[in-house]
Amino acid sequence: MLAGMSCSEYEEWRGYWHEHFFTDALLDAHFAALNLNVVSLVCGDSEGELTPAHFSLLSPPPLPEQLPEHEPDDEQMMALAEGISGGVRYVPASG
């Protein structure tokens, strides 16, 4: 970003941020977006269920009516548990 600026643009930018410091909300928004990008790259969130608000430290938690109603059943939970590396199964997967 700074490499593409002229000297006068850089001086304006420096003067602005000298008077208006980075606020907590701005830093939180940037880190929330960064965390969202990292999680999306690692986990492949293709459905777009996650938003930066999920990673924000300053935003309030979602209201109960905003939370999904769906709770996984036993078979889904067992299938998810089988995929955890280093996990120990105490019951056979079949039967």
UniProtKB/TrEMBL annotation:
Source organism superkingdom: Bacteria
Domain Minor tail T positions: 8-88
InterPro entries from the UniProt entry: Phage_tail_T (IPR009350)
UniProt cross-references to Pfam families, sorted A to Z: Phage_tail_T
The protein's name in its UniProt record: Tail protein
